[in-house]
Amino acid sequence: MKTLTEMKKVCCLGRFVLLVMALGLASTFSSCSSDDDESIPVYSIKDVEGTYSGKMQTTSVAPLESTGNETEEGVAVNAELKDNHILISKFPVDGLIKSIITDPEAAEAIIKAVGDIEYKIPYQAAFNDNKDNILLQLSPEPLVLEIAMEQPSVKAEGEEETPKLTVKVTIKADEKGKYAYEGQKLTFAIQATEVTVNEEVFDTFPATTFSFDMTKK
Fold this sequence. Notes:
This protein folds into two domains: 1-40; 45-216. It contains three helices and 13 strands, in the order αβββααββββββββββ. The chain has helices spanning 2-39, 94-100, 104-114; strands spanning 50-60, 75-82, 85-88, 119-127, 133-138, 143-148, 153-156, 159-161, 164-172, 177-180, 185-197, 200-201, 208-216. A hairpin with a 2-residue loop joins β2 (75-82) and β3. It is elongated. The model is unreliable at 66-71 (pLDDT under 50).
């Protein structure tokens, strides 16, 4: 009888040990699974949003005159991506103005009068097949500059008005922009294909490409 009791105790002890081991293994697997889940990156289209800084390089079919601010490395520029728009708060337009206004002094005066130009580029974002890049389908709209000339002109019977130039730049984007997760790099390009001044086509304007190479801050 005593032997039977001892056997029951051993059996109960064995079951207890097995239960403890089972719980330990379950905890280990759960921990490993949790660690694995944390190591898996979670991607979102909104990862492309944020502020960027970098360079804008200008190239044209016929080289533009130097603006004095451009170098071979390009012009420093900042951008913000939000709500499916690329916002460039200070879009460099020196080269555009100098290609239209041939008088250097007049061009510089207009550049100063125009000041900072804000330009928005709508886009639609989508992942590439490998999900290591976000591609941006750009839909650029015309860039319009309202330029007030300094010299007043006589309107009629002594009334004076300041003449204005309305410059409209047609812009397109043939290729998609790209945001790369590696290095958080943003690259895209837009092309100015036509310029009208007061609704008349400016025939001598060279087709110009603006290439952006930027890094997320």
